Amino acid sequence: MDRKGRRSPLLTPAARKDLRHRMLFFRQAALDRIRGLTGVSEAALQQYRRELKEGTLPDVLLQRGAGLAFVRELPQGALLYLIVRAAQPRRIVETGVRPGYSTAWILAALEANGAGELTSLGPGTAAGRAGGVRDVGVGQFVAPALRGRWTLALGNSEERLREVLASSHGVDLFLYDNGPGAARARFELRAAWEALSDRGILLAHHVDANPAWTDFCRLQGLPPQLLDPGPPPMGALIMHA
Questions:
Q1: Using one digit for the tens of pLDDT, what is the confidence trace for 92-134?
Q2: Where are the beta strands (DSSP E) in 108-188?
Q3: Total H helices, total E strands in the chain
Q4: Structure confidence at residue 50 (pLDDT)
Q5: What does the alpha-carbon distance between residue 3 and residue 52 come to, in Å, rounded to a whole number?
Q6: Contacts of 2-11 spanning 24+ positions with Cβ under 8 A
Q7: Taken in order 131, 22, 91, 116, is the CA torsion positive or negative?
Q8: Does the pLDDT at position 166 exceed 80?
Q9: Strand pairing report for 234-238 and 196-205
Q10: Per DSSP, what are the bridge partners of residue 153?
Q11: Once rounded to an integer, what is the mean pLDDT over residues 18-23?
């Protein structure tokens, strides 16, 4: 059940197997981009992929309600795991957290790294999301075993983001996932870029929702930079670029 007492739809074994497969599907372009961003070896990246295939996180997420409503999000959760394993960030900040789908993947990677902390600023807006996504509680997908490296900061980004970034003492990875509003996206991308460490990585989800990501990359003298073409597309830019 979700936090409002509604029972999650039951999945058949075939549907569960299909969703698990989708969670662990990777586009080659995204894998190549992770190698370019982090310098990780092909052998290490393959090791991290085996961890996911042999691990239980997809099953835990399905048990906690990450079902059909998240079908468009599924491949990119596992990409977050790979990039956190490859980049070995110490301090991560994400915005727009609601049920904690991306949060769970990030925290699982930090646990595998044996180091690092995540601060999530939310809850994010429900605008543009499917009904099943709106219905889940904040942090519902984050299993208790993964919460030791996690801080959930409640509030909106306009009021709290700079405070959160300042308290992180240099951010190694920032994920923008805070809805389609262009003004909010521009504010968060600019604030996060100023707070990134020397080799910090900036990620942005649903970069097709507004022109903020394209405009931001052009300000750096670059065409729009993607981690994964999607849909939905996810942008990625490393500080040294």
A1: 999 988 889 999 999 999 999 999 999 999 876 655 555 555 5
A2: 117-122, 150-154, 171-176
A3: 10, 7
A4: 96
A5: 28
A6: 2/65, 2/135, 2/136, 2/137, 2/140, 3/136, 3/137, 3/140, 4/135, 4/137, 6/135, 8/65, 8/67, 9/67, 9/68, 11/62, 11/67
A7: positive
A8: yes
A9: antiparallel
A10: 121
A11: 90
8 Å CB contact between 115 and 76 = no
Q: What is the rounded CA–CA span in Å between residue 57 and residue 137?
A: 19
CATH topology of domain 13-238: Rossmann fold (3.40.50)
| pLDDT for residue 4 is more than 70 | no
Q: Over the range 25-36, which residues count as b (16 or more CB within 10 Å of their CB) and which as e?
A: ebeeebbebbbe
| pLDDT-above-70 percentage for the chain | 90
Q: In 3D, which of 76, 86, 94, 71 has the Cα closest to residue 30?
A: 76
Alpha carbon 86 to chain centroid, angstroms: 14
Overall pTM > 0.70 = yes
Average pLDDT over residues 132-140: 70
Eight-class DSSP state of 145 = G
The answer to whether residue 1 scores a pLDDT higher than 50 is no
211 touches 186 (CB < 8 A): no
Whether 189 has a pLDDT exceeding 70, the answer reads yes
User: Which residues are 91's β-sheet partners?
Assistant: 117
Domain locations along the chain: 13-238
Q: Cα separation of 115 and 113, whole Å?
A: 5
State CA 138 to chain mean position distance.
Answer: 15
> Does the CA dihedral 164-35-228-57 come out positive or negative?
negative
